[in-house]
Amino acid sequence: DTGVSQNPRHKITKRGQNVTFRCDPISEHNRLYWYRQTLGQGPEFLTYFQNEAQLEKSRLLSDRFSAERPKGSFSTLEIQRTEQGDSAMYLCASSSWVLAGGPQGTQYFGPGTRLLVL
Amino acid sequence: TQLLEQSPQFLSIQEGENLTVYCNSSSVFSSLQWYRQEPGEGPVLLVTVVTGGEVKKLKRLTFQFGDARKDSSLHITAAQPGDTGLYLCAGARPNDYKLSFGAGTTVTVRA
């Protein structure tokens, strides 16, 4: 178990550019989540996948944001035409469905990608 | 308005003292998780509680889930400088898989 990994760890871009982040979940986990965290706040939910299906999107996820998980393994989050307000830590988490009797849906987080839009 | 309210927002104590962080809501949660986060890193899971009234201990850390599953607390005994960090509570509501987070409590333990 190597944990959740995210790449890149840091990204600096100019306003208007597109950026893409990658998340590799824990290998046996079928659920994958994206969150965004700004300074002084807790993470806020963006979207989640069960296998390759994107099942829920937050209203925070504007049409400039798109997430994919094409084969039910790794996921990408793309931001088009970045704005300064997109500057934040983007966190990925994964979880597995556990049969009754266990802690359902405990989420394990990656180290995050810190985005700075100039 | 956040679903989970954490208090206090900041806590600075001397090594060896005890501290308690509170996480409150008017909503019921099917599970509640506590994480610790270092600057520039992702949250690291400390514990998951799922049963109302449940108490879990992790060395010097004691976690409690309220009987009604609306609130939780984290108590640290004899705090050490290594306990310094941002403590986050997060809950999953019934039939929901996403987590709602509190704003966090920044704990500083002075040597």
Describe the protein's architecture and organization.
The complex is a heterodimer of chains A (118) and B (111). Chain A is mostly beta strands and 118 residues long. Chain A contains no helices and eleven strands. Chain A has strands at 5-7, 10-13, 19-24, 31-37, 44-50, 53-57, 65-68, 75-79, 88-95, 108-109, 113-117. Chain A is globular. Chain A starts with a strand and ends with a strand. The model of chain A has no long low-confidence stretch (mean pLDDT 91). Chain B is an all-beta fold. Chain B starts with a strand and ends with a strand. The chains are: A mainly beta (118), B mainly beta (111). At the A-B interface, strand 4, strand 5, strand 9 and strand 10 of A face strand 4, strand 5, strand 9 and strand 10 of B.
Distance between the termini of chain A: 37 Å
Structural class of chain B: mainly beta
What is the global morphology of chain B?
A: globular
| Secondary structure tally: strands of chain A | 11
Strand content of chain B: over 45%
Task: List unreliable stretches of 5+ residues of chain B.
Answer: none
Q: What is the CA-based Rg of chain B, rounded?
A: 13 Å
Encode the helix/strand succession of chain A as letters: EEEEEEEEEEE
Order of helices and strands of chain B: EEEEEEEEEEE
| Sheet with the most strands, sense and barrel status of chain B | 6 strands, mixed
Q: Average the pLDDT over all residues of chain B and give the rounded result.
A: 95
Please give the count of helices of chain B.
0
Helix content of chain B: under 10%
Radius of gyration from the alpha-carbon trace of chain A, in angstroms: 14 Å
What is the β-strand count of chain B? 11
Query: Considering DSSP H and I runs of 4 or more, what fraction of the residues of chain A is helical?
Result: under 10%
- What integer is the average pLDDT of chain A? 91
Cα-to-Cα separation, first versus last residue of chain B: 36 Å
Count of individual helical segments of chain A: 0
